[in-house]
Amino acid sequence: MYTVMVANTAVMMTDVDITARAYKSKMNHLEDYMTFMKLPKALRMRISDYFQARYAGKWYDEKDVLKWVSSSLREDIMMSICSSHVRKVPIFRNRDVNFINAILLELQYEVFQGGDIIIYRNGPGDRMFLIEHGQVLVENEFFQRELCDGDYFGETCLLTRGRHLATVKALTICQLFSLSVDSFHHVMEDYPDIKRDMEISQSDKNILLC
Question: Which range marks the domain in which residue 18 is found?
Answer without folding.
Answer: 2-60
